[in-house]
């Protein structure tokens, strides 16, 4: 899978982000995207073929694998990366709208089209809320689908067409669990960064509004 579009998106958003936003982009690019492409994808590459049960009953192994892994960890991680990065497009589109508006009117309408203020501030805040919400949704989804953030070495399966309870073994469970913990840790870090940036922008805007009102009262 090519991740060039996501890299380009993050590079474009970086121009219109705050300091905390740039840290978030660095975390997503270096500790999530690069780790996914360089290492994690290969660990889960043959997870179905390396899933073994101690019985050769036709269909049993496939049914057991589907029961314990309804969605591949790595595909869900890829979907999470795409979804949490997509809200940043709102900011890019809003800046593009400002620039096109200036071209259409052939005059300077904004001090800086990429400056986070006015309508762009609202768009930026919405993108932060969406990113935080999606991170939380995917963490809950991971937890619900796999009954926690652990990967057992052995699972017992008694689903038809298995004739009885059979033991099934997951390949490289320790290595997979380390990457799963890394995924959860980076997701939590991104949530903290998004909430910090959201709080900072709201606080900064509130102070700015308060000072404007105070100045008007003094005048």
Automatic annotation (TrEMBL):
It is found in: Cell junction, Gap junction; Cell membrane. GO terms for cellular component: connexin complex. Its main location: other. It is a multi-pass membrane protein. One of its GO terms (biological process) is cell-cell signaling. Pfam families: Connexin. InterPro entries: Connexin, Connexin_CCC, Connexin_CS, Connexin_N, Connexin_N_sf. Keywords: Cell junction, Cell membrane, Gap junction, Membrane, Transmembrane, Transmembrane helix. It comes from the Eukaryota. A connexon is composed of a hexamer of connexins. Belongs to the connexin family. This is Gap junction protein. It comes from Leucopsar rothschildi (Bali myna).
């Amino acid at each position: 899978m090519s991740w060039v579009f996501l890299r380009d998106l993050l590079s474009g958003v970086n121009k219109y982000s705050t300091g905390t936003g740039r840290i978030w982009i660095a975390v997503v690019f270096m500790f999530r995207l690069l780790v996914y492409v360089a290492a994690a994808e290969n660990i889960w590459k043959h997870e179905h073929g390396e899933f073994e049960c101690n019985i050769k009953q036709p269909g049993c192994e496939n049914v057991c694998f589907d029961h314990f892994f309804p969605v591949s960890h790595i595909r869900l991680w890829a979907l999470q990366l795409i979804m949490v990065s997509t809200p940043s497009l709102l900011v890019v589109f809003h800046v593009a709208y400002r620039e096109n508006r200036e071209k259409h009117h052939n005059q300077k309408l904004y001090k800086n089209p990429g400056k986070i203020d006015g309508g762009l501030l609202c768009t930026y805040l919405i993108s932060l809320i969406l990113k935080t919400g999606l991170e939380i949704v995917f963490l809950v989804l991971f937890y619900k689908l796999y009954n926690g953030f652990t990967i057992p070495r052995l699972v017992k399966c008694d689903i038809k067409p298995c004739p009885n309870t059979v033991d099934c073994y997951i390949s490289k469970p320790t290595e997979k669990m380390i990457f799963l913990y890394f995924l959860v840790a980076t997701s939590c870090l991104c949530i903290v960064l998004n909430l910090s940036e959201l709080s900072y922008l709201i606080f900064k805007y509130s102070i700015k509004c308060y000072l404007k009102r105070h100045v008007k009262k003094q005048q």
